[in-house]
Amino acid sequence: MTRLAARIKHWARELGFGACGITDTDLSEAHAHLHAWLAAGRHGEMDYMARHGSKRSHPAELVPGTLRVICVRMDYLPPAGAEADTVLNVPTAAYISRYALGRDYHKVMRKRLQRLAERIEAQVGPFGYRAFVDSAPVLEKPLAQKAGLGWIGKHTNLLARDAGSWFFLGELYTDLPLPVDAAGDAHCGHCQACLDICPTQAIVAPYQLDARRCISYLTIELHGAIPEPLRPLLGNRIYGCDDCQLVCPWNRFARPAAEPDFAPRDGLDAPRLIELFAWDEAEFLARTEGSAIRRIGHARWLRNIAVALGNAPRSPAVIAALRARTDHPDALVREHVAWALAQHG
């Protein structure tokens, strides 16, 4: 099993993963943290975080027979395209979280995990496994930390000393009794740059995130209206937010993505708000095919852009773009357009 574990890590590297580690299924500490977070209501409308009973923190309940979890990470920071800081400083541009600029990571990583499982099967014969990429009740960050891939930082993202935080996580639940790796040590120290930079102060304390204030939650997970007091704080961020990662000192060690599928598509690394706001539903679906962005749907796409246009400098073009959507059939869009127009008097 020791030799097999070493081979698994070697195969993971060959398949494009930046790192691979193995852990057991004891998540008692993470279980307590999760339940305290849920009890405080900090998950907002993400009811799926409370569903499935204890399966999220007990891997063997989700996949019977699970003894170990093989954890992997894959770098996604685009090696080319507009710099994030540059886009954030142009109020007429639309900022999209860097993870969503290319192909949907779920599809890319799940295929690679399946290939990793097939290599293991070719070595040991049929075995029990199931691959996950942010697609089931899995506590991926605590598992990755236990597997030695890094530590959960004060912004609640996983950090690695040699790779920062610009990476995706994936897991292979397995019934193989593989040796486990040492857990990652924390190295945030006294730094609280992520707490200070958060536009909405969603990081309410070190290692504590109130999703209800997080821009990623507001622009992606939230289905209804964005709370009015928070709208001006979104700036030009229309899908996700990277501020806590952009300011993190450890990301000076981040590595550009080697995966071509994560390269920016359709100029989404620095698009113009007005141009995106003009997309009808057919164009939205066509332009976001194979992208994680598609999951929010056209109405929420327009909702988010309307807020950004309300935060943009007043101009005849901005006003005209908003007025063209005042009679949109979706009440959610109409309300946010009306708010944006009111911002411009």
UniProtKB/TrEMBL annotation:
Residues that coordinate or bind [4Fe-4S] cluster 1: 188, 191, 194, 248
Q: What class of enzyme is it?
A: oxidoreductase
Q: Where is the 4Fe-4S ferredoxin-type domain?
A: 176-208
Q: Which reaction does this chain catalyze?
A: epoxyqueuosine(34) in tRNA + AH2 = queuosine(34) in tRNA + A + H2O
Pathway membership = tRNA modification; tRNA-queuosine biosynthesis
The entry's keywords: 4Fe-4S, Cobalamin, Cobalt, Cytoplasm, Iron, Iron-sulfur, Metal-binding, Oxidoreductase, Queuosine biosynthesis, tRNA processing
Please indicate which superkingdom the organism of origin belongs to: Bacteria
| Residues annotated as catalytic | 134
The record's annotation in PROSITE patterns points to:
4FE4S_FER_1, 4FE4S_FER_2
The EC number on file is 1.17.99.6
Gene Ontology, cellular component aspect: cytoplasm
Q: Cite the binding residues for cob(II)alamin.
A: 56, 134, 158, 169, 216, 241-242
Q: Which GO terms describe its biological process?
A: tRNA queuosine(34) biosynthetic process
Residues bound to [4Fe-4S] cluster 2 are 198, 214, 241, 244
Q: Which Gene3D superfamilies match?
A: 3.30.70.20
Which cofactors does this gene product need? cob(II)alamin; [4Fe-4S] cluster
Annotated localization: Cytoplasm
Please share the entry's free-text remark on the cofactor.
Binds 2 [4Fe-4S] clusters per monomer.
Subunit comment: Monomer.
Its family remark reads:
Belongs to the QueG family.
What's its job?
Catalyzes the conversion of epoxyqueuosine (oQ) to queuosine (Q), which is a hypermodified base found in the wobble positions of tRNA(Asp), tRNA(Asn), tRNA(His) and tRNA(Tyr).
NCBIfam families assigned to the protein according to its UniProt record, in alphabetical order: tRNA epoxyqueuosine(34) reductase QueG (TIGR00276)
The name this protein carries in UniProt is Epoxyqueuosine reductase
Native species? Acidihalobacter ferrooxydans
